[in-house]
Amino acid sequence: MKFFIDDLAVYFPYHYCYPEQYQYMVSLKKSLDEGGPCILEMPSGTGKTVSLLALISSYQLVNPTVKLLYCSRTVPEIEQATEEARRVLNYRNSQLGEKAPKTLCISMSSRRNLCIHPRVSEEREGKIVDSLCRELTSPWNRENPNSERCKFFENFEDKGKEILLEGVYSLEDLKEYGLKNQMCPYFLDRHVLNFANIVIFSYQYLLDPKIASLVSSSFATNSIVVFDEAHNIDNVCINALSVNLDNKILDASLKNVTKINKQIEEIKKVDEKRLKEEYSRLVQGLARSGTNRTEEVSADPVLPNDVIQEAVPGNIRKAEHFMSLIKRVIDYLKSRLKSQMVISESPMAFLQGLYHATSITSRTLRFCSARLSSLLRTLKINDINAFSGISLIADFATLVGTYNNGFLIIIEPYYQRQNNTYDQIFQFCCLDASIGMKPIFDRFRSVIITSGTLSPLDIYTKMLNFRPKVIEKLSMSLNRNCICPCILTRGSDQISISTKFDVRSDTAVVRNYGSLLVEVSAIVPDGIICFFTSYSYMEQIVSVWNEMGLLNNILTNKLIFVETSDPAESALALQNYKKACDSGRGAVLLSVARGKISEGIDFDNQYGRCVILYGIPYINTESKVLRARLEFLRDRYQIRENEFLTFDAMRTASQCVGRVIRGKSDYGIMIFADKRYNRLDKRNKLPQWILQFCQNQHLNLSTDMAISLSKQFLREMGQPFTREEQLGKSLWSIEHIEMQPASKPKNHLNGKNTQQDIQNITTTTTTIATTTTSATITTDDTDTVMNE
Amino acid sequence: FDFYYYFSCESCIQLAYMKDSVITCLGCNAQLRKQSFMNQRFDDTGLEKENSIRKKYLKVFNKTRKDFKELVEYNNYLEMVEDVIFEAIEGGDSALAAENKLKEYQKQNQASIITNKKAKEEEDILIAKKIADEQRIVQEKRNKFLLEDQQELTNKKLESQKVMDDLAKGKISAKELKELDRKKAAQAAQKQKESSKVSEPLPPISQETDKSATTFTYQPTNKPLDQQQSGQQQQQQGQQAVQAMMYSEPQPIGTFKYDQLELNNLVPTQQQADVAGFKQKYIKQRAFEEAYQFI
């Protein structure tokens, strides 16, 4: 359907629209008009992506130069978003008919997901695919007439630059197109990225400076950047700028040094001209100009606005001088790793120590990364993977030479599982997430941060250090209460339960947790998911349950599956869990908050009818890096230690429980089994759409009370439910939307008398008032909505 | 003086110096003094040697960016220095050549070497000071935070202690306290709301308006079902009565019309009461009960 928000015609691909989708689009429109960052929370499963794409693609009709950069976390999420975009654009263009502008929507991923070369694409590991590809496509390889080449790449080089695509291309579509035209999809993708109207890719392409400078540096500043599922964005920023080194890496990089030295010697004998060319290039200060798209080796780890456009210092211009410098840096790092103590120091102190030991200045260090990539290029090294050690060292050198504030160096012993020993690890950690985000906020006109769980919003604005123009927290409009949160503080025997460290292994607590699961498994149909705070706690508690015979009791009701730290094993468990749910046997999945299952895997409908959170999933506070970050947050942004820890735990908790509600037709019970959840400071940090169901009778429950509440809830949910009931409340048709003050069709405003307008407004307010308590479409209905 | 980069056992050398202040090197018969030994920092003795040579040369070749007008010149100079150092490290003839270059340069640039050395020393001191400051500030902040946390904790403790005392002394009743707590919670919520400045959620939650419209509305309230309503209501009333009894304080006994003066002797002092943890009222009551027990 087509409707107006202010003066913008929005093409929405469905016949019905949820009120929160409408509200979301109104806020989005506001933020696009105003420019500047914006932060939006919307319940999961209410069509966030489609409303986002519908509004922005309609916005692009009016402002054709605006580009949308849509960032998501994983490849499946990227694919999903691309399919949404396809639906949105198809609808929009079919409505516009002849007038439809040419649009290109393209998704972007690594070579591993895009390669169609018969031999290279066999490889599983991303790094191997990368290096094999480079081997085939490097300029020096292509100059050599005898070597093997990639015909797809050759074709692209010949004709690809003129190609202008149109339409929507998912990763699969790109591969298909590549196979049809015998052209490399990856390089084609990289090429057309610059002309596309909508680009869908992962966070790293914008946030990791190493990748961003290669891919995203050419995007125009009026682009709209969207970070979807952005609740962990601060961690992504921090990881992108942190470097960890241990003895293994240092040894590998020392080997790299000897290898490179050998190659330098060889080249000197055979082809000295090449080194000289590089040298003269460096003299002229063209360190970076040698890079062109096809021979990308590695880029600066430093953010674009910090790169100094200056010639490489004289003392590392010669290859052997540079290698000697790297060798000295590595040796200094090795000597630092020898101490068995925990050391934390600022980058400035580290630089001073380095200077006294090896006479290397920070200015020289800053150029290491650029100098190394230039050298590797000159030596015609394809197998970058083998030189990852030395490039890591060079990256570190560049970072430590550039940044002082917001970073810290921590050297500490770290436990190695394989051989049961402690090894020193050198951690150069970024403490300030805003460093990574700043260039994006500065560069792009609109930055939109959105997710299902962003509460409390203000901590994000503090941590990422920005002033959002629009903040919106949307609740869920439903015809029936399809979420039943239970805050469980006591067992049936009235003993309070908690995973606080001092009581977590009490028999009473463990028994109560166990009997909770037994009772829940008896009344809840299909799938139940349990989240524990850690693997070790889960192992411990499950073994006690086994001794108590509780596991057998559960097994009479449902099968039990367990997530382990091994991804393959967990995947198998998950697969069989779903099978058990499908077949009607029902199953319990025991997993760990912050594990693989807790994020990104949906348990819709029968796969998840109940989530039990055992304890509050606090992060391990023993980590030195986390301690340093907490101190930094307190100092710089006035975020209290406890505040941050609780915030972090609660966002993990809400991610976990959010797994079960993946749409309005879905329903689920959320049991928070810890007495600490009952406290206001914890509860308030849950997202609005969970809190709205968290009334007094859901608080401070004991097991039997929760069970009776759940029974009643499940009976209620078992009733048939039609779409007619939802219309106007949790589902809006075009008429309802046109009643909204922002979307009255134009002729209404101009033609009819004002009295009707007033009437419209009054009806609007009443609809809003009645919207809340209710909703689900039966699955068939959902399908029809989609098809229409 | 010379450096010799061989591995030696520390205790052996100590022993050798006990006998004599100068020992001769076994490899090359050079005379060695104790001062010329140094601790090994790096694994690679070659690097150890390189670093000390580098230090020695950089002491002389100590021009900075300020000494040059053009960046290119400075870079050329840096490269020249690096070349000289490489020669020196290589040893043999080239080392001699490097030594000569060093001396020559030293002669020519006597003045600038000294001034730069001074500048460098000053800079070093400055940086050292900066680092020390940094560390001090970090430490101070840590202490400050610790103190703040502690203070908060003690404040909280004091507050709850005060409330307990008040309760014990009967200054406030439990009801009043509950009211107070509720007010505080509301205040905190208000504060949080203000600080987060989040706009109101779109549809206000209203349960009453359309209860009749939706037949299958799940009402999470523990509202009694129709059939059992009457029975449960009674039960509820009973419950309420029980609750009222549980929560309300025992009725004050000030209405007894007995001579207060006499009673005062029975009542323990404030301190005694606090220690015992009794409330005054109970004590009075007990005293009465005891007194009239035998009547």
UniProtKB/TrEMBL annotation, chain A:
UniProt cross-references to InterPro entries, sorted A to Z: ATP-dep_Helicase_C (IPR006555), DinG/Rad3-like (IPR045028), DNA/RNA_helicase_DEAH_CS (IPR002464), HBB (IPR010643), Helic_SF1/SF2_ATP-bd_DinG/Rad3 (IPR014013), Helicase-like_DEXD_c2 (IPR006554), P-loop_NTPase (IPR027417), RAD3-like_helicase_DEAD (IPR010614)
Localization terms from the record: Nucleus
Gene3D superfamilies given in the database record: 1.10.275.30, P-loop containing nucleotide triphosphate hydrolases
Keyword Hydrolase: yes
Molecular-function GO terms, alphabetical: 4 iron, 4 sulfur cluster binding; 5'-3' DNA helicase activity; ATP binding; damaged DNA binding; DNA helicase activity; hydrolase activity, acting on acid anhydrides, in phosphorus-containing anhydrides; metal ion binding
GO BP: nucleotide-excision repair; positive regulation of mitotic recombination; transcription by RNA polymerase II
NCBIfam families: rad3
Name of the protein: DNA 5'-3' helicase
PANTHER family: DNA REPAIR DEAD HELICASE RAD3/XP-D SUBFAMILY MEMBER (PTHR11472), GENERAL TRANSCRIPTION AND DNA REPAIR FACTOR IIH HELICASE SUBUNIT XPD (PTHR11472:SF1)
Known catalytic reactions: ATP + H2O = ADP + phosphate + H(+)
Entry keyword set: 4Fe-4S, ATP-binding, DNA damage, DNA repair, DNA-binding, Helicase, Hydrolase, Iron, Iron-sulfur, Isomerase, Metal-binding, Nucleotide-binding, Nucleus, Transcription, Transcription regulation
One Pfam family linked to the record: Helicase_C_2
Alphabetical list of SMART domains matching this protein: DEXDc2, HELICc2
Main subcellular location: nucleus
EC number: 5.6.2.3
GO CC terms: nucleus
Cofactor: [4Fe-4S] cluster
Family: Belongs to the helicase family. RAD3/XPD subfamily.
Domain Helicase ATP-binding: 7-277
KW ATP-binding (keyword) present: yes
Organism lineage: Eukaryota, Amoebozoa, Evosea, Eumycetozoa, Dictyostelia
EC class of the enzyme, as a word: isomerase
From TrEMBL, chain B:
InterPro entries xrefs: MAT1_centre (IPR015877)
Location of the MAT1 centre domain: 32-223
Example of a GO cellular component annotation carried by this entry: transcription factor TFIIH holo complex
GO biological process: DNA repair; regulation of transcription by RNA polymerase II
Renumbered residue ranges of the record's region Disordered: 183-248
Residues spanning the signal sequence: none
Skewed-composition ranges (Low complexity): 227-240
Pfam families: MAT1
UniProt feature, compositional bias: Polar residues: 212-226
Listed name of the protein: MAT1 centre domain-containing protein
Organism: Dictyostelium purpureum
